[in-house]
Design a protein that fits this description.
Elements: H1 8-43, H2 47-65, H3 76-96, H4 109-117, E1 120-134, E2 139-144, E3 149-151, E4 163-165, E5 167-168, H5 180-185, H6 187-190, E6 194-196, E7 202-207, E8 210-216, E9 218-220, E10 226-228, E11 234-238, E12 243-245, E13 251-252, H7 263-270, H8 272-307, H9 315-327, H10 330-340, H11 347-356, H12 366-394, H13 398-406, H14 411-439, H15 442-448, H16 468-477, H17 484-508
Parallel strand pairs: 4-6
Antiparallel strand pairs: 1-2, 1-8, 2-3, 3-5, 6-7, 7-8, 9-10, 10-11, 11-12, 12-13
């Protein structure tokens, strides 16, 4: 018996071929899946997203195939993720800011034409009253017209078939017609029927007692104009506003998305009904973020100093209790405070009324609403500042306080001459980060006040307690027009402000950019 053994070199060669096959097979499968996704997006007319995935796919193939780019394959997933989830949404948002993209201008020009051309109307001049008979073979419709009567073959209602011919007839089907209450029960099935006459006209259910002819509402001409077949009015495409308009300027919806340049950005500074609320909200946003940082730092620093006091016993218990607001989810605390500040039944107003005879309007008075927001946000943010200060206070030499005590300095003097100068520099980047976070503190506003009370005279939904981020959200999703273009322009401005803060943070952290 002869046994054949493979040499080590042959075994290594076979393993190498297996690895190469798996590598190229996996790459080919992923490439096919990516190309299928790109073609599907292109078929759905999502050209921007199709181009995005085409660029990513081409970049991935170049990185993972080329030997010159071998080192980049390890960082490519992170770069691709940043491109998809950070850079692309940012560029897309900036691009939307230069368009009239809104609830009334969502579609492309071709899709608007398709939508309008698909509309129909029922002719009042071609209308038939009807009677419905139930026979052994099915339901029979007898249409009573002005010039001639029509009758349908037996129909099985509720089936997938919906088109049936109707022929002239002067004889009623046998039996009694169904009563109106029986027709009401069959209305859903009757509404799906399309009855076709000998001359090709379609009849559909117009009411419980009649069928009427269906006509296309609009006719498209070679010059892209549309004529309303019902009224005879002609509409012209206005590519500056993105609507079809008639000679009097009346528009029909939906509209299409067009490039309007800097109009959204200029509207923020030129339209008084937008500029006034925007500036008011912008100032409040800066004030809110700055005041939150100051109040949380002050309270956190005071509590951290008290917990460092040697004469206090049970520090562990106090430390645990003071950190609890940081451990409870913020949305729970916000909703609890919303109940406590309730103007009619909240415990805070009950106490104030019992002690001082006052019942503040926390949610309807702008100044009180803003004060309430600062109180709640200070409660939510002080544990973070307290933890930071506790760690930094541990690093301050005790000798400095002993020498200060020998010179007769008190706690206030030590705070401003020793503690603050030594901790403010390492705290500065964290304070800037806290400022940037509160600049976009959407959850607090959305859950506590919803932006209310509203600013009088604003043409967009704007409230005195709105931050820029919640103001943008309301413009994009709560306004009756849902002006995504204007919201994108404001979001771009927010990005520039937060980006500037990030650069300052990096500079203060001595990071080279």
């Amino acid at each position: 018996m002869i046994t054949e053994t493979l040499s080590p070199s042959a075994t290594d060669s076979r393993h190498s071929m297996t690895r190469v096959f798996l590598k190229w097979g996996t790459l080919a499968a992923l490439l096919i899946a990516a190309l299928y996704l790109i073609l599907a997006l292109y078929a759905q007319r999502e050209f921007v997203f199709a181009m995005l995935f085409l660029v990513l796919t081409a970049s991935a193939v170049a990185v993972f195939v080329s030997r010159k780019l071998y080192a980049h394959r390890y960082i490519f997933p992170a770069v691709a993720g940043m491109g998809v989830f950070v850079i692309f949404p940012l560029m897309y948002t900036v691009g939307i800011g230069f368009t009239n993209y809104s609830a009334s201008n969502l579609l492309s020009f071709d899709r608007v034409k398709e939508n309008l051309l698909s509309r129909t109307y029922q002719s009042e001049s071609v209308r038939y009253g009807y009677q419905l008979f139930q026979t052994e073979q099915g339901y029979v419709l007898y249409l009573d017209g002005v010039h001639q009567d029509l009758v349908s073959p037996p129909i099985e209602l509720g089936t997938e078939e919906s088109r049936f011919p109707v022929l002239p007839s002067a004889d009623l089907p046998e039996g009694e017609p169904l009563a109106i209450r029986d027709i009401i029960q069959l209305r859903s099935d009757l509404s799906k029927l399309k009855l076709v006459t000998e001359d090709g006209r379609e009849l559909s259910l117009a009411s419980l007692r009649s069928f009427a002819a269906i006509h296309s509402r609009f006719t498209l001409h070679d010059n892209e104009t549309l004529t309303n077949n019902e009224t005879g009015v002609t509409y012209f495409p206005d590519h500056e506003t993105g609507f079809y308009r008639d000679a009097d300027g009346n528009a029909i919806s939906p509209g299409w998305t067009v490039n309007i340049g800097w109009d959204n950005y200029l509207k923020v500074v030129s339209d008084p009904s937008i500029r006034g609320p925007f500036l008011q909200i912008f100032v409040w946003t800066l004030s809110f973020a700055l005041a939150t940082v100051v109040f949380t730092l002050a309270l956190g620093l005071v509590l951290a100093n008290l917990l460092q006091w040697d004469q206090i016993r049970g520090k562990g218990f106090y430390r645990t209790m003071l950190i609890l607001p940081y451990a409870v989810p913020a949305f729970i605390s916000i909703l609890v405070f919303k109940g406590l500040f309730n103007q009619n039944f909240g415990e805070i107003n009950l106490v104030l009324e019992g002690l001082f005879g006052v019942r503040p309007d926390w949610f309807s008075d702008p100044a009180l609403a803003r004060s309430m927001i600062l109180i709640v946000n200070t409660w939510l943010g002080y544990p973070y500042m307290m933890l930071l200060c506790m760690g930094l206070l541990q690093a301050i030499p005790r000798d400095l306080y002993e020498a200060s005590a020998m010179d007769g300095a008190g706690p206030i003097s030590n705070l401003f001459n020793i503690t603050l100068p030594l901790i403010i520099k390492p705290l500065t980047p964290l304070l800037i980060a806290s400022f940037a976070f509160n600049f976009n503190n959407f959850v607090l506003i959305a859950l506590l006040t919803g932006g209310a009370p509203d600013i009088i005279g604003a043409s967009t939904p704007a409230g005195t307690t709105d931050l820029l981020v919640s103001y943008t959200y309301r413009i994009a999703f709560q306004d009756s027009g849902q002006n995504f273009g204007l919201a994108a322009a404001i979001a771009t401005a927010i990005f520039l402000v937060v980006g500037a803060l990030s650069l300052i943070n990096l500079k203060l952290s001595k990071v080279k950019v």
